[in-house]
Amino acid sequence: MTIPQEQQEWEETVADDGADTPDATATALPLEQQLAAAQAEAARNLDGWQRTQAEFANARKRFDRQRAEAFTNANIDLVGKLLPLIDDFERALESVPEDEQGDPWVSGVALVYRKLLTLLDDMDIQTIPSVGEPFDPNYHEALTQEPSDEYESGIVVREVRRGYRLGDRIIRPALVSVAP
């Protein structure tokens, strides 16, 4: 018996569909690979974004640290220029004669001197302790040696010029005389 041509083509198509059934997993496999590739790309993008965020945060911290250091350096430069003025006020107030101690102009000079010291205090500028302290070349600059009955060898006997610091940074070392 002969099968009409149309029915024969239809049966071949149905037979091909049955043959394609094992290949259905082959068609799905590229979709799974595509999904895995998309997930891997998403993970790379997330990692790149997180790294960029971390780099940005580190750059901001570095910038803030550099800005604070620049501010500190500017303060140190300014104070370094004011210190000779403070030294002059101290010498002027020490040399005022006894009979002129009560004059208003001496009180005015003393007031300006106290304002300068208050300004230094507000900037957290501290004096370097000297007399009675062991000589430390990081904080003191030895000018002379003076014999002393009161202090042992290597101890600061007299302060010639006061030293100042800001935190751990030395603005100006103290000029001192040390016991031999």
Question: Quick gist of this model?
Answer:
With 180 residues, the chain is an alpha+beta fold. Helices cover 61% and strands 15% of the residues.
Describe this structure in words.
This protein has 180 residues and is an alpha+beta fold. The chain has a domain at 127-180: Nucleotide Exchange Factor Grpe, Chain A, domain 2. Helices cover 61% and strands 15% of the residues. It is built from two helices and six strands. Strands 1-4-5 form a three-stranded antiparallel β-sheet. The protein has a three-stranded mixed β-sheet with strand order 2-6-3, with no helix packed on it. A hairpin with a 2-residue loop joins strand 4 and strand 5. Helix 1 packs antiparallel against helix 2. The longest helix has 90 residues, at 5-94. The chain is elongated and about 140 Å long. It starts with a helix and ends with a strand. The mean pLDDT is 87.
Keywords:
three-stranded antiparallel β-sheet, 15% strand, 61% helix, three-stranded mixed β-sheet, alpha+beta, 2 helices, Nucleotide Exchange Factor Grpe, Chain A, domain 2, 180 residues
Question: Any chance you could write out the topology, listing elements then pairs?
Answer:
Elements: H1 5-94, H2 104-122, E1 125-127, E2 140-145, E3 156-161, E4 164-166, E5 169-172, E6 174-178
Parallel strand pairs: 2-6
Antiparallel strand pairs: 1-4, 3-6, 4-5
Strand order of the largest sheet: 1-4-5
CATH topology of one domain: Nucleotide Exchange Factor Grpe, Chain A, domain 2
What structural class do you assign from the helix and strand content? Answer: alpha+beta
**Are there runs of 5+ residues with pLDDT below 50, and where?**
none
Oligomer status: single chain
CATH superfamily membership of one domain: Head domain of nucleotide exchange factor GrpE
The main sheet comes to: 3 strands, antiparallel
Can you name the CATH architecture of one domain?
Roll
Q: Which class of one domain in CATH terms? A: Mainly Beta
- Percent range for β-strand residues: 15-25%
Number of helices: 2
C-alpha end-to-end distance: 133 Å
| Principal-axis shape | elongated
Order of helices and strands: HHEEEEEE
Helix content: 55-70%
Rg over C-alpha atoms, rounded to the nearest angstrom: 42 Å
- Number of strand segments: 6
What value does the average pLDDT take?
Answer: 87
